[in-house]
Request: fold
Amino acid sequence: MNNYELMVIFTPVLSEEDFKASQKKYQDLIAELGGASVHSNPWGLKSLAYPIQKKTTGIYWVLEFTLPAEGIEKLKIQLLRDEQVMRHMVTRLDKYAVEYNYTKRNGGFAKQDKAEA
Amino acid sequence: MAKNEIKYLTAIKQEKPKKKFCRFKKYGIKYVDYKDIEFLKKFVNEQGKLLPRRLSGNSLKYQRKVTEAVKKARQMSLMPYVTDLYK
Reply:
C-alpha cells in the first residue's frame, strides 16, 4: 500500500455536478482497486500558466490516496480514456511528503516557517 | 587633487557577499511541495527559469528536490515554462 497523490485538470466547460460526479467516480475506482482516498481537495476553476488544448483555464482537483502498486496502471488507463480530463499526474509520496500533507492539512505550518528568508 | 586621492597598497576588501545557507537544512524543511507556488517562486528567476545552486544557495540534495518540484509544477501548468516579468 503506497501513498500517492493525484492531480487532475478537468476541462473548464465541466459543470459543477459533472465535476462532483467524476470526483466520486475516481474515488470509487480507487476503493474498488483496494485503496482508500485519504483527502480530496478540489481547487476549482483556475487559470493555467499556459494554454492546454487551446483552453486557458481548467478545473483542478487534488486527491491524496493509498493504493497497492499494481492498481495504478488501471487508474491511469481510466484517466487517459476520460476525455474530460485534460491532464493528470500521479506522484508517489514518501514519508516526508505524507507528514508534510498531514501538518499542512491540520494547520500545523506557522506562516513564518515557510515564508522565511 | 592628489592630496585627497588615497592610494591603497592592497585592494580595498569589497563588501563580503551575504553568507549563503541552505534554507532546507537550516529550517528543517524535508519535502518540497510542487503545489506550493509562492515558495517555488524563490528558486526561479524573472523568466521562470530555475536558479543555479550558486545563486539559490541550496545544497545538492535539496536543489534536486526543488528542480523536480518545479518541473512537476510546470507540467501541471501551475508555473510557466518561460515568461517575462514573472515575479
Observations:
- Helices of chain A lie at 16-32, 71-81, 95-105, 111-114.
- The radius of gyration of chain A is 15 Å.
- The interface with chain B takes residues 7, 9, 48-50, 52, 58, 62, 87, 89, 91, 94, 96-97, 99-100, 104, 113-117 of chain A (CB under 8 Å).
